[in-house]
Amino acid sequence: MVTLASRIRLEDRECPLSTTVQHVGEWWTLLILHDAFDGYTRFDQFQESLGISSSMLTTRLRTLVADGLLERRPYQTNPVRHEYVLTDLGRSLRPVIVALAAWGNSRLAPEERSMILVDAQTGEEVEPVVVDALTGRRLDDSDAYSFTAGPAASDGMRARYTHRSQVSEQPAGPADRAHPAPMAAHHQPAAAG
Questions:
Q1: CB 157 within 8 A of CB 14
Q2: Cα(58)–Cα(54) distance, rounded to whole angstroms?
Q3: CATH 1.10.10.10 region(s) of the chain?
Q4: Overall fold of domain 4-90
Q5: How high is the pLDDT of residue 192?
Q6: CB environment 161-181: b (16+ within 10 A), e (fewer)
Q7: How is the chain classified by DSSP, letter by letter?
Q8: Which residues are within 8 A (CB) of 1 and not within 5 positions of it... i.e. 6 or more apart?
Q9: Which of 30, 87, 88 is nearest to 60 (CA)?
Q10: Who contacts 8 (Cβ-Cβ below 8 Å, separation ≥6)?
Q11: Of 15, 33, 16, which Cα lies nearest the Cα of 24?
């Protein structure tokens, strides 16, 4: 039997996106983390909220603890019961969860959104964006910002980004100009009235 790890290229194993997905890319894991950000800490709370089986929840919580995203600590002694609390590392994933929810909401009309992010003090809806900490510029423009090999990159990773820069420098051919890539629709939040 071929394991998944043996089918993954070295440059994928060293890619921060791949390693992050390894920890949080599973459906239930993201939902458990979302519930943890909403204040859930106990096994029964997660189970009731998500409708997840006990065995699946046990496995996912165990993995989140092993990965250092949640801390398991007793909250009751007789019988012993544990709660699962976000660690600093787990809390650092909040912007990722917020960005995923914002991306999902951006594909919906405002009246179709079942969950929105609001300012806790004003109740006004906010539009999450990812920005550069130094300049404050949005990072969603792939023409202005691109990934490249970092200082610890393997030869395979360096080759990947060398190839990408050569491809992007080539002029567009007639077929590319005749059929430009479609632009994604983007819905802005409704103005507060």
A1: yes
A2: 6
A3: 4-90
A4: Arc Repressor Mutant, subunit A (1.10.10)
A5: 38
A6: beeeeeeeeeeeeeeeeeeee
A7: ---HHHHS-HHHHH-HHHHHHHHH-SHHHHHHHHHHHTT--BHHHHHHHHT--HHHHHHHHHHHHHTTSEEEEEEEETTEEEEEEE-HHHHTTHHHHHHHHHHHHHTS-GGG-S---B-TTT--B-----B-TTT--BS--TTT------TT--HHHHHHHHHHHHHHHSPP-HHHHHSPPPPPP-PPPPPP-
A8: none
A9: 30
A10: 18
A11: 33
Residue 106 carries which side chain, given as an amino acid letter?
S
Query: 36 exposed, middle or buried (CB, 10 Å; 0-12, 13-18, 19+)?
Result: buried
Q: Read off the tokens for 148.
A: 């490249």
Amino acid of residue 135: T
pLDDT tens digits along 38-95: 999 999 999 999 999 999 999 999 999 999 999 999 999 989 999 999 999 999 999 9
**Which token pair is 176?**
């590319």
Structure tokens at 142: 């792939």
Q: Point out which residues pair with 42 in neighbouring strands.
A: 83
Instruction: Select the more confidently predicted residue: 134 or 149.
Output: 134
Q: What does the block give as tokens for 88?
A: 């600093």
